[in-house]
Amino acid sequence: MHKITRLSSLTLALPLAWNTPAIADHHAEKAAPPTEQPNIVMIFTDDQRYDAVGYAGNHAVHTPHLDRIARQGIIFDNAFVNTSICAVSRANIMAGQYPSRHGIDDFFKVFSDEQLARTVPARLQAAGYQTSFYGKWGIGDQPKPTNLGAEVFDYWAGQPMQTNFFYEADCKFVNSDGFDKPVDNLCDCPADSKGRTGFRNRIGTANLVDPLHSDSQVTPIHTERFLDNRDPSKPFAMMVFFKAPHSPFGDWDPQFEHVTDGLTMPTPAAASLEIANAEPDIIKGSLGRPSGMSYLTRPDVLDQHLRDYYRLITSLDHGVGQIMQQLEDRGLLENTVVMFTSDNGHFKGEHGMAGKWLMYDPSHRVPGFLTDFRRPVGEIRHEKVITTDFSVTMLALAGLDIPEDMTGRDLTALLDGPADDWRTDVYYDHPYGHNGAIPRTIGVRNERYAYTRYIDPTPAFEQLFDMELDPNQRVNLAEDPAYAELLEAMRKRCDELKKEVGPMASTE
Length: 508
Fold this sequence. Notes:
This protein is α/β, with parallel strands linked by helices. The protein contains 15 helices and 20 strands.
């Protein structure tokens, strides 16, 4: 039986600009599920680890708007990604599938026309929703493949590659009308200090006269343009894909320069040289190790990194607040469902690592919540949630049947209390190897144990951790004969889940 943690207080320390509807007494009887199709807002961030929000108890990060939304809904404190890398994770949420089924396992593959027509936004569009997208698409990398995504959105403000944090006020992208879905909406800002121009991952504000920050200013410009000109006879689905808190970490909105002043940055428990030096060779030789070790050998580097990382998150939170204000001003919030999660977590020196990719908790686990403003709740739920649950939930909210080829559960089932038949384990699949720099992995995480199989070595290298007694994943029980029976059971379950989420024939 899954337990419910009720939030003891829904009051924030700081007042906010937007006025949310009154929050019902969360001890009172819940209202019956509404039948009208709600508006849907899916907030998706980049590289935001599970504890990098204020509502998770992290007092070093300032996220008043995300906190306020979350505390009126259900917070998932056991949310995990299907795949911890941006391009594949974004394909996962669009398709509602694992990479072994949709086939996008790197930064360059794209959905076929048939696949695109079966994605979540395409299905919402066919069901009468007006769909919109803002920010980093991430599937296909380059401009032409990126703009394929415009086909399933009525308003398109997607950009290729990693996107930029700063734009000039007269930038073509900033001023593009997403209803026209222009394929020539690429950033045309002047070169940065290193000569990178336009959409090519410019860093900083060099040569920009009137710079605008992507997350705190540009994305709200596009959402406002959409809301002002949408078809009011239709419900809408906005997919708001922020760039933060992905690198470059120093490119936060300057108005938040002092937001971490006077705060002590929390050092993750697993960020120690002792743990890093005990890691197996497959981890020591992987991408992210040099930067991760610099965090451990240079505490000042880690401190600066954390301050920058949190300032980026505050920047995106500011954008969230503006979007919520836009919804409130137009009387739309009371019939809107807001969901939030990230494409993957991020190491802060744990296990001697930076970046993501691995099945260790800082990389695998992400924040998440669902808030239905038609029926406020105020609970923390401990069921295991995966990225593709958000995919099928968007369809369920629209009143659509969940396709058999999608892998996920309807999260609204948790609004009414524990779901006895909810999953007890989650499968992980990271198929991208980056020319050998990232160890490709599969694995399974259940109520107590985490099993990882690194598939490239022969024989495969395995790890097994007791997450109850060893939450920092230090002791590999796969090497202990006393756990041979458990190891075999986890292997078997991993293989079962691999088959369950793998390729299948079209069901339509």
